[in-house]
What we know:
Chain A is mostly helical.
Amino acid sequence: MIRDALLLSLRVSLVATAAVAVVGTLLGWLLARGRFRGKELLDAILTLPLILPPAVTGYYLLLLFGRRGMLGGPLHELTGWSIAFTWVGAAVAAGVVSLPLMMKSARAAIEGVPLDFEFAAATLGSGRWETFRRVTFPLARRGLLAGTVLSFARAVGEFGATLLLAGNIPGRTQTMPLAIWEAVAAGDDPRARVLVALLTLLSLGVILAVARIGRPRS
Amino acid sequence: MSALSVRARIGFAGVGHAAFDLDVDLEFPPGITAILGPSGAGKTTLLSLLAGRLRPAQGRIALGERLFFDAERHISLPPADRRLGYLFQEYLLFPHLTVLENAAFGARATRARALEWLDRLGVAELAPRHPGTLSGGEQQRVALARALASAPDAVLLDEPTAALDLASRAQILDLERMAQRESGVPFVHVSHSPAEAVRVADRAVVLEAGRVVQQGTPLEVLNTPRSLTVARIAGFENILPARIVEHRRQEGTTTVEAEGVRFEMGFQGGAIGSAIELAIRAEEILIARREVRDTSARNVIAGTVGEVRVEQDRAEVTVTTPLPLRVSVTPATVRRLELTVGARIYLLIKARAIHRLE
């Protein structure tokens, strides 16, 4: 059971982080360099899952993706399948709560790249996307990497939204935090301690990784 | 090779600074044109308009047949499509790329052409290194190679030597001249240094508060200032408010008066009594201990030495006539003529050394 929870947690977190890294970077770019109305409102809405209690975020996700949800309903009617109570649902929950961390990191990292570098690239015939790919992205990569690691950590620790959207099905949607909760509720202290130790080690590793990324190269 | 022409008007509302508008009509033929002017005159704004970083409210910008901007036809080519080279004061080489990757960055650059320009500019051996390990002069040479490897139709330079030491400055300017000759395209070189303009440029344009106040060859502009701004930029030490007293058409001279002292200068237009401003270089005034009569200098003016400042290679003497005039001589002259405070002397000024400002 410990092994199941660990493997599921890794799968859910890695899938969520991969998606969040791509979407968060593009959103960060849009927010850092875009000029459009409602930019700060968009930032605020996407930041909400960072501030809201995860249970609230989970409830919104149910409204959206549940079997009778705004998106989940039509999906269920068409395919008979729903992300609720599947590992995909756990990944969606983990992704939504960690997206703000990635997006904020990406926005700050991209805003930290001087506009003059992008202008220099433009005078050399580089279009917007090419400038992002060849100049902005490489120059912002440390901040982007740090944001990715933080998002991964947040995804691994996700509990509340996951419980609401994906439930707590051992072997299917029971990630490590949920397994800890169940072990403690069942009075299985030895199992709880192993899970707690594993998560503590993982978190420590993340902190060290972020510190390493943040340190300037010699 | 085509000329770069710009006719543009752009205004900036005064937010945090004084309201400002630029209104110019200029043509930059192949060769190097220096843009001079005090800070805030609009030099960098002009480059931004040419490069497409800013859009004028009205006007037209074109390079030969290629239209960059036309307000009436709503045409505005983005910077990436203008095929211009741009040199920055801070070089702005991409720090994550090697020197060669930087030089070959341009969409129309090739590795071969990048290497060729790195070689011509004497930095080919730096090709595998990263910009962070280079000196300022080396970085600017790489930046020049990067701009030229894209075969630009014109090159814009925004104070490219401002962050360099004197030796690197001279080197960059020589390489810039070479690069211009090789490429044959217009170079527009913003500078705050008149000496640099004389050294590098074929033409000079002086901007003041967004307007062109003078243009010509750099020497012509700096030796015959027609405005206070140009006189200041050119380093005229003596700038005097004066009044027209008398015209002598036959002699080809005009007499003017500044604080009770009369000067004869080359014939000027303007009504008697009208106020003008004069500029005289400190080094164009001679000092004599005795009154000299048979001289070509039209002005021999008695005065008293008020202050003497001796430096290593020059001395500046302030003479009260009673109008104070600054005169530049060598330290040897100070000793030989015994120019001490209170000494009675005569100043000799050619009529042609007195310039009228508008």
